[in-house]
Amino acid sequence: MLFDREKNLLIDLTLPIYPFHQDVVGFPKVCSWGHTAGARLNSVQAGIEPDDMPEGKSQAWEEATIATHLGTHLDAPWHFYPTTAGKPSKRIEDVPLEWCIGDGVILDLTHRGPGELITKEDIVRAAKDIDYKIKPYDIVLIRTDCDKMWGTNFDYFEKHPGMGRESTIYLLDQGVKTIGIDALGFDRPFKTMGADFRKTGNKDVLWPAHNVGKEREYCHLERLANLWKVPVPFGFTVMVAPVIVEGASAGWVRAFAIVDKDKIK
Ligand SMILES: [Zn+2]
Asked: Can you list the domains of the chain with their CATH numbers?
């Protein structure tokens, strides 16, 4: 059994979406319709009067305008480029569910500071430190602890490290299809990459990790949370299935880890 109430611990790896909280990918607007409005809507649909319902109340609901890349989400290959190795890129509905459940492994990269690049050597060392050999279809989670800045100030948007081309390719070479990070983005911050480009004129410094997706098919999760709460670095299951907005480049996920209590020392 995948989940046993007695034997397993569930850890939520998801950030909440705060309505009306300014974000680099837009301003999430949420209109909350209360129970009185619910009675009005339901009465029209049912051909009755709002007062026909107890206390004139019925079900509440919300209407939301939120970027698909806000909140914890999975980037589909279509996000990276229209084609992957010359073939049409997968949109969110094309991402196999088999890529969304797997053995989780957390690589501790918390020593990497704001704007720093996570190198291939960092990844190799982090796996070695926990004595783990990455295998095909592992869901590799890059731990930076940047989720601790979420909701406080703009540091969350500007002060995270990011993956690079070589570190991403290294994981894909191990057969990994889904990589996650507990930071705003998979690459370094927008401003850091922009400053490096202005200094060097080198286009390779712009979204090098995302751009791997032009050649190699994979997905990544951004804005994960609570990797620091998972008591074991591997030996747990991760589930990260995305919501399907047809044709979209990403989907919100409720990501969580299923940990075997027996494996916690
Ligand atoms: Zn994204």
From this structure: 10-16+68-263 (3.50.30.50), 29-65 (no CATH)
